[in-house]
Amino acid sequence: MKTLHRNSLRISFVMLGLRDYSSGGYSFNFRMVEALRQAGHEVDVVHFTSIPEKIRGLRFRTSLHVLGQVLKYKPDLIVISKSYSFMVPLRMLLSVRKYPVLYLVHHLEWHDRSGDVSSARRSIVRWFLSCGRKIWVNSLSTANDVVSLGIPEERLCIVPPGFERFKLTPGSRMQQPVRILSVGTICPRKDQLTLVKACAGLGNREFHLLILGDETSDEGYADAVRREADRDSLRGKVTFMSHLSQNDLHEMYNQSHILANLSHWEGFGIAVAEAMWAGLPVVAADAGAVPELVTHGINGYLIPPGDEKECAKYLRELVDNETLREKMSASAHRMAEEFYTCQDTGREFVNLAEETAGCKVCMELSV
Beta strand pairing status for 101-105 and 134-137? Predict the structure, then answer.
């Protein structure tokens, strides 16, 4: 009887930051590690937690440790997610030893700040990415960013990150007041400050703003958002929550009416996809990959980044008009049904890793 067997790969998966981050990008990376292992591949993860404590944060020594760990493992494929701070020795090795490399780009990191970057910094990132035989990106927007660095388009493969299709509970959001939900780390890029100011423009309307997000990334900014939310016009109408389980987050989507995502940049926008699945109209900044998910006037509204007046205008429309919310809710869910699931993404990612390594599924005879 003929059976299909995959060639098992030894894969070094390098995803290393200056601390043990708990971002969406790292969560995605670990999901892909599990997908690779479930497909029968061996994966050695080079992560903050795998670095000896005594050298964590020491860039040069950590960089040499990363190089040594990869060489010791003797991989068939190296997968790298960012890790620029610790990549120089390994990147130099890759200039002379042609290991197949799959590079992951969730977004270009200067979007976390002002978006401005020097030509020297762009050249450095291009040098890192140029070692990739293939480069995974999460959206057309991110792909265009990478191509703008001078990376050949044919090396890129767009695989959306996918999301878990959680159980929907129709009727759970019938309660008033209207709940406006914001999901994401509280930081300037996510621009919760503009959202809070916009909500102050809703006047005496019955609504509640729930801001879900880690406040430790930029504590000064988080304090400024809290001070704005404590003004008389908003007192009692804004709640902050930091750490929720995935199930609790899904329940928050089910119980809310509107998602507000004013981020100046999103490589994809998982919170937007999840909210759409739950049937939430979205008010979002017209930036990054979010316009690939939100169609203005159909399942939400797109506004210029940082425009609190436009944000307040569309929030007023949605808060005041239940019929409009329901119409956009149906459109949002219908669109989300076409998005990748986590399983779809895992399958596509495994195929991409195998293609990058030159691995082929082979036919064997079993007795």
Answer: parallel
CB 353 within 8 A of CB 36: yes
Are 8 and 40 in contact by the 8 Å Cβ rule? The answer is: yes
Q: Is the peptide bond before 177 cis (omega within 30 degrees of 0)?
A: yes
91/81 Cα distance (integer angstroms)? 13
Domains and CATH numbers, the chain: 2-162+341-361 (3.40.50.2000), 178-336 (3.40.50.2000)
262 residue type, one letter:
L
pTM of the predicted model, to two decimals? 0.87
Written as one letter, the residue type at 157 is C
Per-residue pLDDT reduced to its tens digit, 261-276: 999 999 999 999 999 9
CA 338 vs CA 9, 254, 273, 344: distances in Å: 32, 19, 10, 11
